[in-house]
Amino acid sequence: MTTPIAHFNGQLLPLDKIHISPLDRGFIFGDGVYEVIPVYGGTMLRGREHFERLQRSMDEIRLDNPHTVDEWMGLVEKLLEHHPGNQSVYIQVTRGVPPKRDHVLPKGLAPTVFMMCYPLASPSREQVENGVACITARDFRWEKCNIKSTSLLGNVLARQLSADVGATETVLIRDGFLTEASASNVFVVKDGVALAPPRDHLILLGITYDLLVKLAADGAVRLEVRPIPEVELRSADEVWLTSSTKEVLAVTKLDGQPVGDGRPGPVFRRMHALFQEHKARLAARGKVPA
Ligand SMILES: Cc1ncc(COP(=O)(O)O)c(C=O)c1O
Fold first, then answer.
1. pTM of the model
2. Are 92 and 32 in contact (CB under 8 A)?
C-alpha cells in the first residue's frame, strides 16, 4: 500500500516521512488547534467557514495565523489533488517548537502546520434509517469548549464512556442543561420545534450546526436557539447529532430508553433531506464553495 500524501509546513510529503519534534508545543502541551473539513467529490463543504473558525480558535489561544483563508483554501486544494472522492481533511496548527519546555507562551516561533486526508465515513443507510443509541454523562470538560483545541482528553474520556457500552456518542449535561456531545452538536425537537443550545463558550459552534440553522430557516422548519434543560432532553420527541462527518443523525435511544417513538422523527427526516439536497447542489456546482 502506498503511503498517503500529507502537508507539513508548506511541503507535500508521504505521511511516513513527516517527523515532529518532541519539543513541539502540540506534543508537550496539546497547545494547538485543528479543523476537520468534509469534502464531497472534490468540493469542500463550507471550507471558508471552517477556516474562519480556525482563525477564531487561534485568536482565543493567541496564536498568529500563518495563512489567510484564501491561502488555506489553496493549500487544501493542492492536497486534494492527491485524494480524489469524498474525504475528511484534518488540519492542525500548533504553537511550534521552542528550545525548552516552559508553560509561558514563547515569542517568535513559527507554528507547525500539518494536514492529512482520509476517506470520509458518512453515516450508513442503516444508521440514517434507524438512528443510533447514545448515553448521557456529566460534562466534565473545561470552560473554553468554543476553542477547537487539540487538547481533547476531556472529549476522549467522554467518548469512551459510550464506546464502552457500544453506543455512538456521549451526550453531555452541565449544571442541568444540555451542552453538546463528545464530538458532535446536539439538537432536540419538542412539539415540532427544533431546539439548539446557545452559541456560547460551553459548546464548539459546529459548522454543521450553523448550516442546519440556515437550512431550517430556508426550509421553513421552526427552530429556536436557547438553553435546553436536561428534562427537555429526556422528554424530547426527537434528538439529533450533527457534525462534519455525522451530517445529521437521529438519536433513537438515550440511556437505554427510546427517544419519542424510538424511530427517526419527521423533523429529522425533513432536515436530513434538506442537508442531502444542499450536498447535491454543492456537487453540481463543482469547486465553487457553499
Ligand atoms: C465537541 C464537538 N462539538 C461539535 C462538533 C461539530 O462540529 P462540526 O459541525 O464543525 O464538525 C465537533 C466536531 O468534531 C466536536 O468535536
1. 0.96
2. yes
Which residue carries 449535561 as its cell?
Answer: 173
pLDDT digits (tens, 9 = 90+) for 12-46: 999 999 999 999 999 999 999 999 999 998 999 99
Q: Dump pLDDT digits (tens) for 99-146.
A: 999 999 999 999 999 999 999 999 999 999 999 999 999 999 999 999
| Mean pLDDT for the stretch of residues 279-287 | 78
Question: What DSSP character marks residue 138?
Answer: E
| Residue minimizing CA distance to atom 2 of ligand 1 | 183
Three-state DSSP string of 20-46: CCCCCHHHHHCCEEEEEEEEECCEECC
Helix H segments across 12-131?
25-29, 47-60, 69-80, 125-130
Does ligand 1 lie within 6 Å of residue 26's CB atom?
Answer: no
- Catalytic hit among 100, 148, 246, 287: 148
What's the 263 CA to ligand 1 centre distance in angstroms?
24
pLDDT digits 0-9 by tens, 139-197: 999 999 999 999 999 999 999 999 999 999 999 999 999 999 999 999 999 999 999 99
- Answer yes or no: is the C-beta of 179 below 6 A from any ligand 1 atom: no
- Residue 185 alpha carbon to ligand 1 centre in Å: 6
Whether 148 sits among the annotated catalytic residues: the reply is yes
Which atom number of ligand 1 is nearest to the Cα of residue 244?
11
User: Distance from the CA of 202 to the center of ligand 1, in angstroms?
Assistant: 12
Task: Locate 110 and state its grid cell.
Answer: 513559527
